[in-house]
Amino acid sequence: HAFHPLDISAIAFWEKDFRNRDDTFAELRAVDGLTWHRPTESMFPHEETGYWAVTRHADIRHVSQHPELFSSSNGISMDPMPAEIQRSMTFFLTMDPPEHTRYRRLISMAFTPKQVRRIEAQIEANAKRIVGELLDDLDSGEPVDFTDAVSKKLPMLTISEMIGIHPDEHEAVAFAAESVFSASDDEYAGGLEEQAVFLMTQLGILTGAGVELAKKRRLDPRDDLMTNIVNAEVDGHRLTDDEIGAFMVLLGSAGNDTTKQTTSHAFKALIDNPDQRRWLLEDLEGRIGGAVDEFIRWSTPVISFARHAAVDTEIAGTPIAAGEKVVLFYCSGNFDDQVFDDPYRFDLDRFPNPHVGFGGGGPHFCLGKQLAVMELKHLFTELLTRLPDVELGDPEYVRSDFVHGVKRMPIRRV
Ligand code: HEM
Fold first, then answer.
1. Which ligand 1 atom sits closest to the C-alpha of 376?
2. Which of 404, 292, 304, 307 is nearest to 348 (CA)?
3. TM segments (predicted)?
4. Nearest CA to 333 among 319, 318, 348, 316?
């Protein structure tokens, strides 16, 4: 296929606010059918011809909801890295039903609404403490990095406490988890080869931490997710060390970095839109739920996931051959004017808000949605009611094709 001239890799946009990508995606959504694009530059050179860009909301939902047509097992990242490497980072995200169903069922035990409510009091207490510490930091009058002081903390504490990670290891696990998503940022390593080595090192740290913790829980069971995992069986066998390592990477990264990024983007949007902030504060308890939906739509922390056609099929009239790759651009679907009125307006009163930030439905739909929503509700309730007026410096964005990330965002008391 002929390549479309528009470069839609996030890396092409990373230096600017990501809102600069909106025109590009609006242009692609208006094209009949799909467009074919060059593969992104990969840390792990790998044969790949290109991919179809799925940019419309309806098409993203169609692909997500038909795993029999669009498979996950040949890789799910926009980066064309080999599927085996992807699997070690994403566990059952890179599987198809029925294999996927068996593993997902196992991990789902920890994410039932009942289980999530069980840890709500702890999430609320952690949110209060984090905001209390932020207030102390701001008192100094010096700029504080919001991502470091706030965004990263609640998700890290929540997932670490659920899995059973020792507090001494929280920082290292969180750093490794963040690196899995943003290894392409040259803050960590320059050059693709160095980045690949860095990524594999951080993956090793995460998987090693998982395997060590599993060992401890086999000897000394506790009331935590790792104890359940080491005791559970899938297809009549206990999870292998490789599987436990991949579980740790998936939950460590999915549970940490996504919610962190939404926190930074949403905080910025609230400062940039004081009318929206005032409206929310008029009935915080009644409105925060809908507001969090808009936080997710607006921030879309996961830029894209991919699939490969399992059979010859079509999307929006474009024939797709078996084996071809399709990339689901959630960051485009969430701004599709066929679904969202005035999509580039940050509108906390948007209803309904059928965003695809947690995926387009189907078997891989985000397992941590309730948990993420609960964290964001408590954190923003605290921030909005207790924080004095602050001034925001320029955010620095993560250079990544996968995560819509904010590296640093200074704030200062005014
Ligand atoms: C899957 C987004 C928070 C655990 C996903 C997917 C997306 C996503 C887009 C893929 C959906 C698909 O392929 O159809 C987000 C966002 C979050 C968030 C935007 C926060 C703002 C969390 C949290 C956890 C979590 C807090 C766990 C603690 C998972 C897992 C999967 C997943 C385990 C894989 C599900 C599967 O393959 O069956 N998430 N996520 N996520 N997420 Fe989340």
1. 21
2. 292
3. none
4. 316
Pocket test for ligand 1, best of 73, 86, 107, 258 (most atoms within 8 A of CB): 258
Measure 137 CA to ligand 1 centroid, in angstroms. 32
How sure is the predictor about 6, in pLDDT bands with cuts at 50, 70 and 90? confident
Q: Is the pLDDT of residue 276 over 80?
A: yes
89 lines ligand 1 (CB under 6 A): no
Asked whether the ipTM of the predicted complex exceeds the cut of 0.90, the reply is: yes
Cα(253) to ligand 1 centroid in Å equals 10
Which CATH class, in words, describes the domain spanning 10-413? mainly alpha
Cα 257 from Cα 180, distance rounded (Å): 9
Per the omega criterion (within 30 degrees of 0), is the bond before 352 cis? yes
Residue recorded with tokens 């002081």: 149
Q: Decide whether any atom of ligand 1 lies within 6 Å of the 364 Cβ.
A: yes
CA-nearest residue for atom 42, ligand 1, is 366
**pLDDT, tens only, 360-369:** 999 999 999 9
Token readout for 180 is 């899995």
Q: Could you state, in order of their start, the residue ranges of all structural domains in the chain?
A: 10-413
Contacts of 369 (CB under 8 A, 6+ apart): 358
Å from CA of 250 to ligand 1 middle: 9
CA atoms within 13 A on the CB side of 86: 23
Residue 329 pairs in a beta bridge with 304
Q: How far is the CA of 138 from the centre of ligand 1 (A)?
A: 33
Segment 49-72, tens digit of pLDDT: 899 999 999 999 999 999 999 999
What is the helix (H) or strand (E) element at residue 318, kind and residue range?
Answer: strand 318-320
Between CA 43 and CA 34 the distance in angstroms is 26
